[in-house]
Write a structure and sequence with these properties.
heterodimer; A: five-stranded parallel beta sheet; 6 helices; 5 strands; 50% helix; elongated; B: elongated
Amino acid sequence: MFACANIRSLDYLRQAAWLLFLALVPAVLTAFLHPYGAQDIDRLKPDEITWTQSRKDVRFTDALWIDARPATAYAAGHKPGALRLTEADWETLLEPVLDAWKPGRFVVVYCDSKSCTASAGVAARLRRELGAGDIFVLRGGWQAITP
Amino acid sequence: MKDRLQKAWGILPRLAVAGLFVFAAGPKIYAPEAFIVGVGNYRMLPPLGAYITGVYLPWLELVVALALVGPRRFRDGAWLLAGALCALFAVAQSSAWLRGLDIACGCFGDTDKIGIKSVALRLGLFGFVIWSWRCDHGARNRQVPVGATQTL
């Protein structure tokens, strides 16, 4: 019985190995033919800026900073002058943001780190609701501001 | 009638799993960059590892789906890989959730955030794959005539 089970297990593994190999062929072709390469992983998206860029670029001198983190994180520390705005509390937090924003003023949204998604969500919604294009996401979030 | 039902019972879950894998693989194959970034966000692999995984996994999902609906020759291996992939996704998501990462799941090319719901969904999917495997296995065993030995 155990010998039979071993033969069966080997069969499963052999088939799985074939499938793993079959998937390798189109994956290698994708890696060679697709314009997005391994070197592009850290490339900035069009709506992203780095902390260094935001400090050097004069257009961001008077930027409106939006903190998209939870209230506890905001209370623990935030960029001076940054207003909190999250998708969860959008209706209550939007008004002070609208009061502070004027057309033409750059907006920078940040969340906790490079991998968080809150800032991208808030930036996209602001773009939709304000109809403005100068809304950026800070690459690296709060961790980039306070390394 | 009973035979037909038994046959359907063996085929439908297998088709459902294959469909899920095609549904998961499609957007990632079409736009691999989003999935590559998504894999990197889990902070489990270096950038090159995230790139290789992000390019390879969607094709593996598609190959597994095709093997599930294709000839029997690769079906057992496809079940093994389907279970392993679901387990892998469940472990990765649980790990990200326990580490408190605020990231998108990326499993079906979506932007839903990782949380208890997405982890539970992944574990449920793993359970469904195991159950479907058993259904398919049972259906195939029933097809072997009495007294005959199944060819391995």
